[in-house]
Amino acid sequence: MTAIEPTRDEEEREPGLRERKKQRTRETIARVALQLFSEHGFHETTIKQIADAADVAPRTVSAYFPMKEELVFSDSANAFDSLATSLATRERGQTVADALRDWIRGFIEADDHDLQRRRCTRAIVESDPALRTFERGLQERAEQIIATAVAVDLELEADDLLPRMVGAATIAALDSLGREGKQSAETLPEEGLAMVDDAMAFVGGGISALAVRRGLQPQP
User: Fold this and answer.
1) Are 97 and 201 in contact (CB under 8 A)?
2) Interval 140-171: pLDDT, tens
3) Who contacts 181 (Cβ-Cβ below 8 Å, separation ≥6)?
4) For the segment 106-148, what is each residue's pLDDT rounded down to a tens digit?
5) What is the pTM assigned to this prediction?
6) Domains in the chain and their CATH numbers?
7) Which of 18, 99, 123, 205 could serve as 90's disulfide partner, Cβ 3.0–4.6 Å?
8) Phi-psi region of 121 (alpha: psi -120 to 50; beta: other; left: phi over 0)
9) CB-neighbour burial class of residue 205 (10 A; exposed 0-12, middle 13-18, buried 19+)
């Protein structure tokens, strides 16, 4: 019997099917890990327990998440890629603060349906000093992405002090917003978005003032 060759459509669909399966596996691992961390504690939960709960091999868990801490911050890589792209491809004339505000609002609105997961993640992080340290490392990466975009507007190198100051101030403002405004942002989303606007107004004002001092913008 002659074997039936796969059609071009089937060949084109196959990579997409594989990628979707991998994404589902990754999401399942992250979901059950958060549940186990919440129930038993981050350090008390083993990779084998996570693998058993997700019905995969321990090496599969480690392949998707080389560091155990990454299981708690499973969305960070995609978020960083999205943030960097949003800032790098912003329209001519759009400020870093405006692009950041648009990105943050989109991120919040897209994630609003999974409020329980965000609460669970926050509780796990707050209960473990090692996770807070790991989170700080992620925040430093976000600071660098922001500093790179600010440096373009200020015509400076990304490692110059001024862009780094703006990056650090931006993350500090957003971190304060997340901690102090947590309840209102969860119970009344429009209040949370309004606080984002306030934070970005603060950031944008600082960048504008620096641009004026460098002679890149006329005095208001």
Assistant:
1) yes
2) 999 999 999 999 989 999 889 999 999 998 89
3) 191, 192, 195
4) 877 776 556 778 888 889 999 999 999 999 999 999 999 999 9
5) 0.78
6) 8-68 (1.10.10.60), 75-213 (1.10.357.10)
7) 99
8) alpha
9) exposed
Instruction: Please answer whether residues 74 and 46 qualify as being in contact, where contact means their C-beta atoms are separated by less than 8 angstroms.
Output: no
Cα angle value 26/30/31 (rounded, 5°): 115
Question: Which amino acid does the sequence have at 84?
Answer: A
Q: Is 82 exposed, middle or buried (0-12, 13-18, 19+ CB in 10 A)?
A: middle
Q: What's the one-letter identity of residue 212?
A: V
Q: How far apart are CA 112 and CA 59, in angstroms?
A: 32
Tokens linked to 146? 């922001």
CB atoms within 10 A of CB 16: 9
